[in-house]
Amino acid sequence: MSSTASGKNGTWRNWGGNVSARPARQVAPASVAELAAAVRRAAEDGLKVKAVGTGHSFTSIAATDGVLIHPQLLTGIRTIDRNAMTVTVEAGTPLKRLNAALAREGLSLTNMGDIMEQTVSGATSTGTHGTGRESGSIAAQIKGLELVTADGSVLTCSEKENPEIFAAARIGLGALGIVTAITFAVEPVFLLTAREEPMPLDRVLAEFDQLWAENEHFEFYWFPHTGNTNTKRNNRSAGPEQPVSQLAGWFEDEFLSNGVFQVAQWVGRAAPAAVPAIARISSKALSARTYTDIPYKVFTSPRRVRFVEMEYAVPRAALTETLRELKSMVERSGLRVSFPVEVRTAPADDITLSTASGRDSAYIAVHMFRGTPYQAYFTAAERIFTAHEGRPHWGKVHTRDAEYFARVYPRFDEFTALRDRLDPERLFQNDYLRRVLGS
Predict the structure, then answer these.
(1) Within the chain, which residues score under 50 in pLDDT?
(2) What's the Rg (C-alpha) of the chain?
(3) What are phi and psi of 380, to 5 degrees?
């Protein structure tokens, strides 16, 4: 567990600082057998159980007043199978350690999100994703997983073994059991060329289908109060490697994206009226750049500015309309939004409660600097997203409940029926799961 997610006197806090909990006890098992024993003991003591990663979720998905299980001793690679091209890792392994270890072995995941602080199980259980035309979320790259269920037994799941559990547990929200190991599909390490460049929002929206179709990984950031975006296209490349130079990397990623951005957020929080002017300056601060490197060095970047986030997946065909509505809402509202809006895509997948389950999706993420009031902005944004049958990210702020999810997820009942079977006593329940899955 990262120190950022822990607290004093037994209080646990998440990374965003918006969720805290006081568990009755906290356990860090050193083996799957110890974890299974901790689960059985909690059941005997009448306590609920939750596993937590690095606390990167903005929802209370991992919060409990029962037993909180930390996976920091369950880390590392178990096996690499070069014939099957898979790697099996312990659930508590941080993505950054997995990425670095795979690179040393000449291997890589096909796609990943834009941060890599999370544990593999935390990231996949909440549906963490990057952007991709053909390649989906991190969970969509899972080939097998190991799960400790409510009675303390250990199940292995894949397309062949326990396939109905596999369909759901890849993004299981911690509701079906505790994931102890994950097998990912990997491929020989490759190079990506990233092309980042500013582009007017009107042009991005007018040409969105083409930008999506022509690039393996397309995403953009729109700066509210402006008509400006910063676009990023990542495509496979034959090389040669041309990483961002250390000085340019420090200037662009640390100084501009984290340092100056942090100061701009402080100013915006103190003087909201200055936000539109700051947005116009920030949206022009980053100039175009192109670089070529191995995947995790291109997909991921450091995020040192603390924020709170809401993200919804809408059908990809509804993206431009949804974003235009968001823009006119911000303009009408008098809100001061100092954080860019991030837009990404994912292809349809076959995971029961994946935000991309059964439909090609576009993701729209709204952020607010930690400590600034976000309710008015997020509420207005959420109203727009839900009008388009949006599905919120399980680890980000939202107000939806089971009744809503039953409408936007065709296979919702399949998931809850499986939960009834695997956890009839609701050992893994907490307030969040009661709300989103029903009791």
Answers:
(1) 1-6
(2) 21
(3) -65, -40
